[in-house]
Specification:
By secondary structure, the protein is an alpha+beta fold. The chain is built from 16 helices and ten strands. It has three domains: 2-99, Double Stranded RNA Binding Domain, CATH 3.30.160.390; 106-184; 212-399, hpI Integrase, Chain A, CATH 1.10.443.10. The protein has a five-stranded mixed β-sheet with strand order 1-2-3-4-5.
Length: 415
């Protein structure tokens, strides 16, 4: 939240500045309640904020987008809205009647721009926009929000399911969330949510743990990839002729090893900056992650990997733009991981399964679930319960070993 004199020149300068990484609000320094907000897509919207005479929470009235509405016109519109509120006339309520004619696409777009961009991570906003574009808009987008029925939602979900079962579920949950938010802000009548209670596809947790032999094979494949190189596959060659040996970037193999050794999430490693690395204490101090601020503990092997990496730019895992003014983190590890798995003759393993392998190894070594949850950065202890069956097996082995030792000390032999 920031303040400035909202005028033609100041707004023009603001629109030329860098796009914010989250929705940012600016309030006018002269007219209380008048402001504008700018989203992560670069668009900006004027608004008026006021509290009704009858009491209750503040209301925010969108006046129009920057570029469509001039700053001076927006100021007068805001002055009128605030003055009317002081006289007991609620323009926001009047406009809510007009918004009853919003389409589903418009409702979901508003939800993303006014709530998700402000309160959720950028990655979440990106996912929701993808679901809106790919699934919601083609199937439900043009339908008026107030006339959408549960039957419409269920039919749309069935069509989405043919393309992607899990994404179909996510799309319907997005629509449901948009209706819930919309009802609270006057965009749709209260109690209207045709997506609530829709029957979704069953989702089964997929957990794949690498065996000791598979870990060895992957380790050998990475050594080969970063030394003599791996052959380029037909149909996948990007910069090299088919059949040529290509040496893999040491940053790619380092990223994979760090994922294996720490149990970190993919983006936690790819977005890792050198300023967040503390080799003296053997930790990574992440200012933000999926679950908020987080500390990742480094085993000696991971510390040695980091010590051996050349510092090339701000990010530990250097990408194509490393060292440039507009440096960005590496996007993913799909190509190198696929090549390594193929060379190692290991199939059906996702990058995220390295995290499962880390957890299962810890549980198998009789570490408690709370410890594993801490290492993985689980905010909710129930998330770690997926490894409870492994903990039971480890406990059984432990009690058998302890019992056998005590029985022998007592001169008894197990039957």
């Amino acid at each position: 939240m920031a303040g400035l004199k909202i005028a033609t020149d100041s707004v023009a300068a603001l629109m030329k500045s860098a796009v914010p990484n989250k929705t940012t609000y600016y309030f006018d320094s002269e007219l209380a309640g008048f402001g504008l907000y700018r989203t992560t897509t670069g668009t900006a919207t004027f608004f008026a904020e006021f509290r009704p005479v009858a009491g209750g929470s503040k209301k925010r009235l969108k006046l129009g987008r920057v570029g469509t509405l001039k700053a001076n016109d927006a100021r007068e519109a805001a002055r009128k809205a605030i003055a009317n509120a002081a006289l007991g006339k609620d323009l926001a309520k009047d406009r809510s009647d007009e918004r009853a004619s919003l389409t589903v696409e418009e409702l979901v777009t508003l939800y993303i721009e006014e709530f998700v961009d402000r309160h959720r991570k950028t990655s979440s906003a990106g996912l929701y926009r993808m679901l809106l574009k790919k699934h919601v808009k083609p199937r439900l987008g043009s339908t008026k929000a107030v006339v959408l029925t549960r039957v419409d939602v269920q039919r749309a979900h069935a069509v989405m399911t043919r393309e992607a079962r899990v994404s179909a579920n996510r799309a319907i949950k997005l629509v449901s969330a948009a209706y819930g938010w919309g009802a609270r802000h006057g965009h749709v009548p209260e109690g209207v949510n045709p997506a609530s209670g829709a029957k979704l596809n069953e989702e089964k947790g997929r957990e794949r743990f690498l065996t000791t032999d598979e870990l060895l094979s992957i380790g050998n494949a990475m050594i080969e990839a970063e030394t003599v190189g791996l052959p380029v596959d037909a149909g996948k060659a990007k910069h090299a002729p088919i059949g040529q040996m290509v040496v893999m970037s040491p940053y790619a193999t380092a990223a994979i090893r760090l994922l294996m050794l720490t149990g970190a999430r993919l983006r936690e490693i790819l977005n890792l900056r050198w300023s967040e690395v503390d080799l003296v204490r053997g930790v990574l101090r992440l200012p933000d992650s999926k679950t908020g601020k987080k500390t990742i503990y480094l085993p000696t092997a991971a510390v040695e990997i980091l010590k051996g990496l050349r510092k090339w730019g701000a990010f530990v895992i250097a990408g194509e733009s490393a060292g440039t003014k507009d440096e960005k983190p590496r996007h993913d590890l799909k190509r190198p991981w696929a090549a390594i798995c193929k060379r190692a003759r290991v199939s059906g393993v996702r990058i995220h399964d390295l995290r499962h392998t880390f957890a299962s190894t810890g549980v198998g070594d009789q570490m408690g679930l709370p410890v594993i949850g801490t290492l993985l950065g689980h905010a909710d202890p129930s998330t770690t319960q997926r490894y409870a069956h492994l903990a039971d097996e480890a406990a059984r082995r432990a009690v058998e070993a302890i019992g056998t030792k005590i029985a022998k000390a007592m001169g008894e032999q197990p039957k």
